[in-house]
Amino acid sequence: MRAIGLLAVTVLVSACVAAPSGITPVSGFELNRYLGKWYEIARLDHSFERDLEAVTAEYSMREDGGVRVINRGYSQQDQAWKQAEGRAYFVDTPDTGHLKVSFFGPFYGAYVIFGLDHEQYRYSFISGPNRSFLWLLARTQSVPEQVITDFRQQAASLGFDIGQLHMVRHELPITAGSADDAQ
Predict the structure, then answer these.
(1) Arch. (CATH architecture) of 2-181
(2) Neighbours of 140 (CB within 10 A)
(3) Residues 6+ apart with CB under 8 A from 119
(4) Which of 44, 48, 112, 135 meets the CB 3.0–4.6 Å disulfide criterion with 19?
């Protein structure tokens, strides 16, 4: 019975880091070019990000070879910055845009880069472990309308509910200090 329980946990954990069916991670991925600060342009909303605007993600190297992830966003309801720190590791090879990320102890979720500006690394399209997780990230607080159109079209063709897409605002009347003050 214990062996069945361990097998079930292993299957559940590995399912959480697998790419959703039909979604292919980008190849030719270069982590060093991906590191740094990204702005969240659009997302499918979840409880851990609900009410957050001016959201950023910052990626840097960890001493163990993994990636340090710092997510920040401004809660208008609380009038305060929120921050979460996580860690990420490649699921396959380092040239495939498929990582597993954890913000909660030993539990990991998929981080699948399925769209990327390979030339300049200015924007990326991200999926989580299923089609209820979706993000458009960019190096700037806004992107050309064509990038948003391409994101919507590609996400819709992959089965995401783009009707629920939340467009993140970065220009806010924020009075609780800057994003750099969130610690």
Answers:
(1) Beta Barrel (2.40)
(2) 13
(3) none
(4) 112
